[in-house]
Amino acid sequence: MRVGVFYFPTDYGIDISELARAAEERGFDSLLLPEHTHIPTSRRTPFPGGGDLPKAYSHTHDPFVALSFAAAATKKILLGTGICLIPQRDPIVTAKCVASLDQLSNGRFLFGIGGGWNVDEMENHGARYETRFKLMRERILAMKALWTEEEASFHGEMVNFDPVWSYPKPKQRPHPPILLGGSSDHTVKRVVEFCDGWIPIGRAGFNAKEAVERLRKAAAAAGRDFSTLSITVFGAPPEDAVLAEYGECGIHGAVLGIPDVSRDEILGVLDKYARLAATAAHAS
Question: pLDDT of 112-121, one tens digit each?
Fold first, then answer.
């Protein structure tokens, strides 16, 4: 089983180039970076994790800029968004960011996506909480057209443009893997419809065997080949027994969270995680 890490790339945290090199040197499969363009001071939307919103959420670098530095500092590790907030991003600009980063990293980009939870944040981008998933779907379908068609066009209810030329095309064909976050039955259906993988959060109560069966059944109902889909648990518990269980149940990968601590502490955490990753890889 593949084991990667994710980190909120803050303006006060470890240098992202150093972190990427350290993760690659320790043999991690991937490095994912979350996204928040800003945090409204109103704080109308409660933090899903409960309590106060962690400082890192309002101090994150743009993920595509940060991943570009990570790509320049590494050669093999996969680099991705975990997750990119699609309702808050123009699809034509984002398609260009994805294709450019995939080309410049020699095909190492993973496109983790989601609808988002912060209502006031997305409203500042002109998106509405009630229709965010419909908007996300159309924007992803439009991006697929931009990546795969010489003269791409898209005509939907929320995204609409006539034929355009959009280059570069991604290095990976037809495009980088699209991995959708979330846990609902609707999420699983969206994964099967227009994504390549599912990245559920490994919070308390997550059942690996049940997750695999949910995706398998959804794929069968839609007539999609289950073997073309992947499951990677985001924020998985850093425990040998849990990772072993994931592998036994057919989970393809796990991403471990790097805490918002000092540089030296982060490197120590990576050393600990690397031992877990080696055990998980050996078991698979």
Answer: 999 999 999 9
Dist CA 253 CA 246 (whole Å): 8
pLDDT, mean of residues 225-247: 97
pLDDT of residue 283: 75
Residues 2, 30: Cα–Cα separation, whole Å: 8
Region 2-283: CATH code? 3.20.20.30
Distance, CA of 222 to CA of 274 (rounded, Å): 38
Domain boundaries, given as residue ranges, for the chain: 2-283
Tell me the helix, strand and coil percentages in the chain, rounded to 5. 45, 20, 40
Q: What would the mean pLDDT of 247-251 be, rounded to a whole number?
A: 96
DSSP string, 22-90: HHHHTT-SEEEE---S---TT--SPPTTSSSPPGGGGSBPPHHHHHHHHHHT-SSSEEEEEEEEGGGS-
**Number of neighbouring beta carbons within 10 Å of residue 153:** 13
245 Cβ contact list (under 8 Å, min separation 6): 208
Backbone angles phi, psi at 10, to 5 degrees: -95, 165
**Calpha distance 109→105 (Å, rounded):** 7
Q: What is the tens place of the pLDDT at every residue in 56-85?
A: 999 999 999 999 999 999 999 999 999 999
The token pair at 3 is 């084991």
> What is the phi/psi pair of residue 233, to 5°?
-85, 120
Q: How confident is the model at residue 37 (pLDDT cuts 50, 70, 90)?
A: very high
DSSP string computed for 146-176: HHH-SSEEEE-SS-EEEEE---PPPSSSS-S
